[in-house]
């Protein structure tokens, strides 16, 4: 019990960990709230609890939006360090990653302007800026899926070569990397389904997801993110 509490405290002490926990609670609340609010009108108490959870989820979403006001510089530093991806072995992975960084970098100012317009800090219509940010987010997710698929293909080729040459340790490492890429694809697909839902009506299934389904997709993605973060931390501990 104590170890679990200490692990949770360690996660919450970092910005990245805290954001992932808030995201998980946000979508989890939307999932449960969406399910409860759909109950029969006779179950008034469940409906009221569901509405409160949906309001709580909306507040946590706003919290994450405000916190992202300070993410531009860190994203810029990452984009600058990656550059044009000269260290990548595969040209497709390289340029997909560059395009992903461009989409991510442009996402933040668009979202900031939309938030500022909603908060009446600037005179602008927020709708188009929310649309721009959603399109950029969806584009980044789609590019991320393509990148992971390409990396999976390359890892499979490496695995086949290693199986012929007989390298035991590298095979386990390659399988671990492949599992990580599969999880990334599942996470991005779940988020992409929500991104399409938030597009203007008439685009695929835009606007058709009920609250519980949005919460389910977001919860799946968030839990995968927590698993990946935990696996990354354990790998760093083992290497140390």
Automatic annotation (TrEMBL):
InterPro entries: PEX11, PEX11C_met. One of its GO terms (cellular component) is peroxisomal membrane. The keyword Nucleotidyltransferase does not apply. Signal peptide: none annotated. It is found in: Peroxisome membrane. One of its GO terms (biological process) is peroxisome fission. It comes from the Eukaryota. This is Peroxisomal biogenesis factor 11 gamma. PANTHER family: PEROXISOMAL BIOGENESIS FACTOR 11, PEROXISOMAL MEMBRANE PROTEIN 11C. The chain crosses the membrane at residues 129-155, 209-231. Pfam families: PEX11. Keywords: Membrane, Peroxisome, Transmembrane, Transmembrane helix.
């Amino acid at each position: 019990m104590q170890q679990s509490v200490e692990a949770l405290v360690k996660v919450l002490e970092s910005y990245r960990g805290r954001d992932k926990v808030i995201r998980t609670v946000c979508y989890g609340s939307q999932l449960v709230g969406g399910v409860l609010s759909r109950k029969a009108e006779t179950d008034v108490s469940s409906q009221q609890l569901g509405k409160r959870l949906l309001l709580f989820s909306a507040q946590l979403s706003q919290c994450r939006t405000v916190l992202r006001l300070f993410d531009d510089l860190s994203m810029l530093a990452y984009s600058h360090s990656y550059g044009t991806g000269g260290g990548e072995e595969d040209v497709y992975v390289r340029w997909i990653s560059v395009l992903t960084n461009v989409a991510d970098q442009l996402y933040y100012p668009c979202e900031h302007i939309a938030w500022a317009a909603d908060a009446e800090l600037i005179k602008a219509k927020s709708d188009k800026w929310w649309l721009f940010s959603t399109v950029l987010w969806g584009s980044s997710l789609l590019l991320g899926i393509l990148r992971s698929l390409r990396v999976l293909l390359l890892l499979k080729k490496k695995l086949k070569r290693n199986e012929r040459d007989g390298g035991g340790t590298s095979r386990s490492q390659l399988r671990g990397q492949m599992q990580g890429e599969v999880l990334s694809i599942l996470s991005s697909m779940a988020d992409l389904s929500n991104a399409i839902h938030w597009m203007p009506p008439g685009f695929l299934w835009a606007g058709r997801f009920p609250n519980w389904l949005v919460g389910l997709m977001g919860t799946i993605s968030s839990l995968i993110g927590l698993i990946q973060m935990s696996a990354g931390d354990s790998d760093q501990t083992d290497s140390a």
